[in-house]
Amino acid sequence: NAGVTQTPKFQVLKTGQSMTLQCAQDMNHEYMSWYRQDPGMGLRLIHYSVGAGITDQGEVPNGYNVSRSTTEDFPLRLLSAAPSQTSVYFCASSRAARVGAKNIQYFGAGTRLSVL
Amino acid sequence: GIQVEQSPPDLILQEGANSTLRCNFSDSVNNLQWFHQNPWGQLINLFYIPSGTKQNGRLSATTVATERYSLLYISSSQTTDSGVYFCAVNTGTASKLTFGTGTRLQVTL
């Protein structure tokens, strides 16, 4: 069982370049999300999706774009990379939250991005 | 939004020692998870524990939801326990997690 798969593991970009970070899950989870982790800090939510065709902004959405055309995939797009976007990016998935039901979030291995 | 505070921020232990990590949160929660981020950056689920007590080997966790805190106990620590421990919560019917800033643990020989 693969769980949550992120590609690539590492990426170096020049300022102004665009790229897409891929995230796929095989657990049929409704909820998927993207976080970034900066040195010495916890994870901060960028964007999330509660199902195919539905996305919303998290705490730090500027400079990022997402779409959710299938249940399995939730790509994160950097439109014009900036040095401030140098970070480690994590994708997560879970079942939709229901009061009283277990709602464990599973994380991918992360993508380490450097923007020069 | 909900605030999550973890203490201590840093902890150095000798191998074999026990420790307690604390997570305080500012509102009632539906989900509380403890994660271990290993030195390679992987986030590993330790516990899903919105209330009550759970144990898994040398690790155990207790959440007192009415008092808005959770504790992670590590007994007989090993060097492989080194890394950063995060507490993360969500509230209401939302799935999105709010993370604390973590406790960095170093276990030495």
Structure explained in plain terms:
The complex is a heterodimer of chains A (116) and B (109). With 116 residues, chain A is mostly beta strands. Chain A has no helices and 11 strands. Chain A has strands at residues 4-7, 10-13, 19-25, 31-37, 43-51, 54-57, 64-66, 76-78, 87-94, 106-107, 111-115. The mean pLDDT of chain A is 92. Chain B is built from no helices and 11 strands. Chain B has strands at residues 4-7, 10-14, 19-25, 31-37, 43-48, 52-56, 59-64, 69-74, 83-90, 98-99, 103-108. Classes of the chains: A mainly beta (116), B mainly beta (109). Chains A and B meet through strand 4, strand 5, strand 9 and strand 10 of A and strand 4, strand 5, strand 9 and strand 10 of B.
Name the descriptors.
heterodimer, A: 116 residues, mainly beta, seven-stranded mixed β-sheet, four-stranded antiparallel β-sheet, 48% strand, B: 109 residues, six-stranded mixed β-sheet, five-stranded antiparallel β-sheet, 0% helix, globular
Radius of gyration of chain A: 14 Å
Structural class of chain B: mainly beta
Give, in order, the helices and strands of chain A: EEEEEEEEEEE
Largest pleated sheet of chain A:
7 strands, mixed
User: What value does the Rg of chain B take, in angstroms?
Assistant: 13 Å
If helices are DSSP runs of H or I spanning 4 or more residues, what is the number of helices of chain B? Answer: 0
Could you tell me which chain pair has the largest interface and how many residues each side has?
A-B, 29 and 24 residues
What class, by secondary structure content of chain A?
mainly beta
Principal-axes geometry of chain B comes out as globular
Mean of residue pLDDT values of chain B: 93
> Could you tell me how far the N terminus lies from the C terminus of chain A, measured between alpha carbons in angstroms?
36 Å
Layout: helices, strands, pairs:
The complex is a heterodimer of chains A (116) and B (109).
Chain A: E1 4-7, E2 10-13, E3 19-25, E4 31-37, E5 43-51, E6 54-57, E7 64-66, E8 76-78, E9 87-94, E10 106-107, E11 111-115
Parallel strand pairs in A: 2-11
Antiparallel strand pairs in A: 1-3, 3-8, 4-5, 4-9, 5-6, 7-8, 9-10, 9-11
Chain B: E1 4-7, E2 10-14, E3 19-25, E4 31-37, E5 43-48, E6 52-56, E7 59-64, E8 69-74, E9 83-90, E10 98-99, E11 103-108
Parallel strand pairs in B: 2-11
Antiparallel strand pairs in B: 1-3, 3-8, 4-5, 4-9, 6-7, 7-8, 9-10, 9-11
